[in-house]
Amino acid sequence: MWFKNLKVFTFTKPFKIDAEKIEEQMQSDGFVPCTTLELSKMGWVSPLGKSGQMLTHVASGNLWFNQRKEEKILPSAVIKDALDEKVAELEEKSGTPLTKRQKSDIKEEIIHQLLPKAFSKFSHVQGYISEKHQWIVIDAGSDKKAEDCLALLRKSLGSFPVVPVQPSKAVTEILTHWVVDHDLPVPFVLENEAEFKYPGEDGGIIKCKNQDLTSDEISAHIEADKQVTQLRITWDETLSCTLAEDASVKRMRFTDVVKEQNEDITKEDMFARLDADFTLMTGEVNRFLESLFNVFQVELVNPE
Do residues 137 and 3 make contact, with C-beta atoms less than 8 angstroms apart? Predict the structure, then answer.
């Protein structure tokens, strides 16, 4: 349940959570497994797993959702081998090479034949909407996963006016400044991991891990015009994470000080534990994002 990555999108006009309406709208896109002829399928499932029946869960003004995706596993090498064999057989019979279109049709036929025998891979992308902060937070490690989740939200809810977080100042400038001057605003603390890159699409990349970022060696990289594009930090003794140049958050880990707060709730009462953990996590994430976006100078829509 604890999020590991944060892709944050802000609303372009005020959004109010109508939990009952959103639940009803999501029902039409509830997850249904792939048929024997489908390669993939996406839909909503309960964020509370077996402990919940609804497709959404609201706690402390945050609406939690969970997208499930099924993908059929068809190795490209298997398809290629079957295609090559079939093409060779047909070309030998006809004495003429097949056209590109004919090969494409044969490939589609092979895929349909193999699909019923294919294994399925399942994945989940969680997220939540904060009405107070007018943002949506998605636990996704890639832009594509986040966009797929947003696309399903738009399909279910209709209008869903959000854009990626847009800092007023370049994040790379802020992160580079932190490393150069070792002057992070409280309660941010520099750790020992960073990524440096020369400006431009073809710029070289240097990654440092377990490295003193205040050392002369690191200073030399910056003096050579490299910019900090990723930086590992600790925030408020609550969590550690990597800040990226697109204002996203990667590899987030909560400290035991946070996770142990709900230890008095037994795991046998799974619903209560998940509800408490979600409330605790979103509270800390929202505090962290408030602090981060204040530094990044992110403007948010007034919820009123």
Answer: yes
Q: What is the pLDDT of residues 10-62, one digit of tens each?
A: 999 999 999 999 999 999 999 999 998 899 999 999 999 988 889 999 999 99
240 forms beta bridges with 234, 253
Nearest to 83 by CA among 118, 109, 107: 107
CB neighbours of 169 closer than 8 A, spacing ≥ 6?
Answer: 296, 297
Instruction: Look up residue 249 and give its two tokens.
Output: 């958050």
pLDDT at position 299 over 80 = yes
CA distance 199 to 245: 12
Using one digit for the tens of pLDDT, what is the confidence trace for 229-243?
Answer: 999 999 999 999 999
- Rounded CA separation 152/67 (Å): 8
Closest CA to 284 of 261, 251, 300, 250: 261
Structure tokens at 233: 């930090």
Q: Structure tokens of 148? A: 């797929």
Closest CA to 2 of 266, 283, 237: 283
CB–CB of 96/58 below 8 Å? no
Question: How distant is the alpha carbon of residue 105 from its chain centre?
Answer: 35
pTM of the predicted model as reported, rounded to 2 decimal places: 0.89
Give residue 80's identity as a one-letter amino acid code: K
